[in-house]
Request: fold
Amino acid sequence: MTAATTSAAWDQARLALWSRPHLERVEQALSGWVGVDSPVLLGEAMRYAVLDGGKRLRPLLVLAASEAVGGNVAAALRAACATELIHAYSLVHDDLPCMDNDVLRRGKPTVHVKFGEADALLAGDALQALAFELLTPDGDEVPPAMQATLCRMLARAAGSQGMAGGQAIDLASVGVALNEAQLREMHRLKTGALLQGSVEMGAACGTGVSPAALTALRGYGAAIGLAFQVVDDILDVTADSQTLGKTAGKDAAADKPTYVSLLGLEGARAQASRLLDDALAALDASGLQDTAALRALAHMVVDRDR
Amino acid sequence: MTAATTSAAWDQARLALWSRPHLERVEQALSGWVGVDSPVLLGEAMRYAVLDGGKRLRPLLVLAASEAVGGNVAAALRAACATELIHAYSLVHDDLPCMDNDVLRRGKPTVHVKFGEADALLAGDALQALAFELLTPDGDEVPPAMQATLCRMLARAAGSQGMAGGQAIDLASVGVALNEAQLREMHRLKTGALLQGSVEMGAACGTGVSPAALTALRGYGAAIGLAFQVVDDILDVTADSQTLGKTAGKDAAADKPTYVSLLGLEGARAQASRLLDDALAALDASGLQDTAALRALAHMVVDRDR
Reply:
């Protein structure tokens, strides 16, 4: 996975420099928006689920894509936070006893361990609603047509033909022998849809973006969306729980199909590397100038150790 | 609750006549939109949760309010279905073992009894996303600004300062002595927010509606939203499970505060009657001509036996 790294226009130190102020804005915005004026325990559970944790990959993808197209800054910040809320709610529900029954997430007790199952369920539900609320502010900060487009993209990425659909396939696949096409379809929905959606939402914060650039960004999003899951499968067998901040080895333990079980460790690594190349090639074809952050994020997705 | 009935411009037979074609359109639309092209079990669970059951009160409120303001017909149908999806998802999650642990809903086994908890959880999640997807169609059927407004209203009605927030307060209130103001606040969020939101979303399908009319419709929605819960509390002690299509007496059994436990049966009935008067007075003050369906729906909410 390191061959392509040398071609990065930015190294990871440069990416960290770019990310820092963006992450600060995202954290500050989330802290001001999540669980505020909510009934006490629900608000606390929502904030616990969202704040002070996570790589914020989806927000960074939104912001980087928006910058690549010269997008509306206020819209991009809202879209960035909205994608993270959908991600966070999915983790809360995914960790529940009736799903993965996981007790550790981002190095902390999961939400239902801390607040009880009922409040965890409601916190997840409320986070999904809040995502759409963030995308539809009163006033003229974000043009109404842009609000509608962002809601449409997020709803599709999150719903039964996106993330929730992928999770349902995942549920039905325990102990089932999937071929690579079926595994790819599951992950395209389960993880890929929201990652790709994040890139597309960032692009939708721009106006007058060329169809070619939008197509290229979609291709970039699809490639890194799938790469993310391939790397997740690799880390599930190569990393320990402390580094991951969640339980390692649980997919293998649950007899879930993974890229590693299907392609072997080296095959999965080669696949991740190919997807990185696809993502970078899509950016090259986009005709956009300011894609360095997107390129560096693609490298980060593939080279991460947690 | 019958004194005010005689003042209805429409009797319930007339309401049924008005409702029939609207309900047919809603059922047909839901059937075409829900769980279609979804992974098999998830789609089935979504359809099971939504189709062939329920009074469709929220959709009727949307459609009646939209007609009162001469609203966009396509937008109103989508908004009608979206409110029902939010309602349906809330029932699926509410019935889960970690919440009310209910096995009977609309006279059928609840979704988790039929499909398992994990798929019930995901079906609820996917229904919420689908609600926002329905509100944001491609093309020019619904103007983008109207799409954004409808999403904003629905997100607020469903989220932590609406329905989900009310459910969290409800959870925290078992065995707790609430006064009437606290009980009202809980129900304003838990049930009232989405009912009021349905009326407001219907009104938002119109253009150029006067601020006075919007204020009046909000007042109407608030009154029937609360009346609905007062009547629910009455039916919980006066009706049997077969008529209700769900488990009767469960609030009392769970030691939950209700209007009946707080005001007594006659006091609760008087309260419902007062709220009906408030709702009708708001319509009188709206300056709108075509409010007969909204009036009849208010009567239906208060006079229903299930």
Summary: Chain B touches chain A through 57 residues (CB under 8 Å). The domain at 4-303 of chain B is CATH 1.10.600.10 (Farnesyl Diphosphate Synthase). The first helix of chain B runs from residue 12 to 33.
